[in-house]
Each structure stands twice: as C-alpha cells, then as structure tokens.
Amino acid sequence: MKNLSIVVPCFNEQETVPLFYAATQKVLQKMPVKAEYWLVDDGSKDNTLQEIKKLHQENPAVHYISFSRNFGKESAIYAGLKAATGDYIVLMDVDLQDPPEFLPKMYRLLQTGKYDAVGCRRVDRTGESKFKSFLSDQFYKVINKISKTEIVPGARDYRMMTRQMVNAVLSMPEYSRFSKGIFSWVGFKTKYLEYHNVERVAGKTDWTTKKLFKYALSGIADFSQAPLDLSVWIGIISFILSIAGLIFVIVRKIITPSSSIFGWASLVSIILLIGGIQLLCLGIIGHYVGRIYLQVKNRPIYIVKEKK
Ligand code: UDP
Ligand code: MG
C-alpha cells in the first residue's frame, strides 16, 4: 500500500473546503492508499483556516499550513510539496475544478511504473469568457515558440507525481515560480488525461484577466530569454536601416550637390522612433534585472504562521 499526499492551495475558500474534502474522501475510500492531506491556507481573509481546522479535528490525516499573508498559489504549492511525505503526491485545486474522480486512474497509471507523473489537461474552456480563452491560446502559442521548455496547452496543475519527481521540483529554489514550466523543466515521463472543463462549485476565482496577463508575462521571462534576443535584433535592424539612410544621403549629396537640407519633421519622427525602441529594450532588460534582484535578495518563498 502506497502513501498518497494530497496538496491543496486554498485562498478565501471557506465554502469549497468542506465540499472538496467530502468529494475527495468518497473517492479515496475506494483506493488502496493511506492518504494524508496538506491544505495550505494562503493568507485567507475569510474562515478558510477555521474550516480546515475542523477537518483536522475530525481526521488527523488532514494537516495544514497557514501563511502569514497571501503569497500566491505558486508559493502555496511549494510549501505543500515540501511538507508532503507520501510516495505519491497529488496537487489539487480546492474548488473541485480538478475532479477527484480522476485520482484512481492517475494512481493506477503511476503504479504501472511507466510514468513519473500523470497530469490533466482540459480540452475546452466552456464557462470562461471568449477573450480569456483567446488570450490563453495565444500565450501557449508564444511561449512554446520561444521557450525550450514545453508548456502543454490547457494543462492544469492537477497532477500526481512520484516522490522522485517532487524532490526534483523542490530542488529548484527559484523565487519566481511558474509551476507549469518547472514541472516540464525537471523532465520525467508525464501522461496527460484529457477532460472537459468543470466550473468551480462555489466561491469565485480571484484571477482577473490583468492578473493572468502578468502571470503569463512572468512565465515567459522565467522560461525564455527570447525577449532579450528580440532587443538585439531590433538593434541590428535599426543599425542596418540607419547605414542605408546614410548612404542615401551621401549619394544624393554627390549627385545633386545643390540639394538643401530638408525634412526636419521626418528627422524628429526618426529620433522619437529610435528613442522609443531604446526605451523598449531597456524595459525588457530591466524586467530581467528585476527578477535577478528579487532572486539575489534570497527572501523566503513563503512565511508560515501555523502548521499542524
Ligand atoms: N489560490 C491560492 N492563492 C492565491 C490564489 C488562488 O492558493 O493567491 C488557490 C485557490 O484557492 C484554488 C487554486 O489556487 O484552490 C486555483 O485558484 P482559482 O480557482 O481561483 O483559479 P482558476 O481555477 O480560475 O485557475
Ligand atoms: Mg479554479
């Protein structure tokens, strides 16, 4: 019999915690495993922690970690993975968008020894706004083009991993964590189960389009240096164009020596254009420097207030 750890990040989820526990317990009863839960309260402002504590009193296999403030889902995932002791570890959202019904199948697939992880990817996004789906499709297209790390479109964080793979994930102590990239970067064999999108049972998501956009940009910076190359290319192209312009001006002067200087308006436009390009490139570099700054400060990824 294997030990299974269930790691669940929770942020303002007082309604969904009991529903999640009930649904998951129902599935676990039919599985040949000894399960432990690690519910990570990511600085919730509602009664999430109280709800979790109730479960802890009812079942000592329900453990919890409570952060001193909201550190974000990625930090909660890291803390949960670190605390988990199982042979297999599964990551789940608490809003039942990751259906517990998949657990037995994931477990069976891992047991065959053919895979190191079994993940889930949703093949549609019903219930989500068209605009959001469009943006996320574009994100997967762009990042897979410019990053060597493959990011599987629609893959959720819902995945069951072997101890060996989790140890590999934990060995990456980066401050800015993009799990979708990290899980792929560490390698190992992953099998993806496909399913149709499920909407959350209660509560509401706190991912606005703006937040998702920022998350996408930071994911790109975490797993690709293509934006830096882009600024080099813009520089090379504007250098070539300026040489061509120079040749044009000299040749014109030789052919028609009497031609006077004209076109200061176009000159101003060109100066503004070059200035803009320089600021853009500086911004791209600044973005990466900022990430280096955050990493070298070596701040902890999360701070625990309570753990049991
Ligand atoms: N979550 C978290 N910290 C945060 C935001 C979210 O731990 O700052 C948790 C949340 O409680 C849930 C999971 O991450 O279990 C996914 O969040 P959500 O359902 O809001 O995102 P979506 O499913 O829309 O991607
Ligand atoms: Mg959700």
From TrEMBL:
Keywords: Glycosyltransferase, Membrane, Transferase, Transmembrane, Transmembrane helix. Residues 5-166 form the Glycosyltransferase 2-like domain. This is Group 2 glycosyl transferase. It holds the Pfam family Glycos_transf_2. Gene3D superfamilies: Spore Coat Polysaccharide Biosynthesis Protein SpsA, Chain A. GO terms for cellular component: plasma membrane. Its EC number is 2.4.1.-. GO terms for molecular function: glycosyltransferase activity. It is an enzyme of class 2 (transferase). The chain crosses the membrane at residues 230-251, 263-289. It comes from Lactobacillus helveticus CIRM-BIA 953.
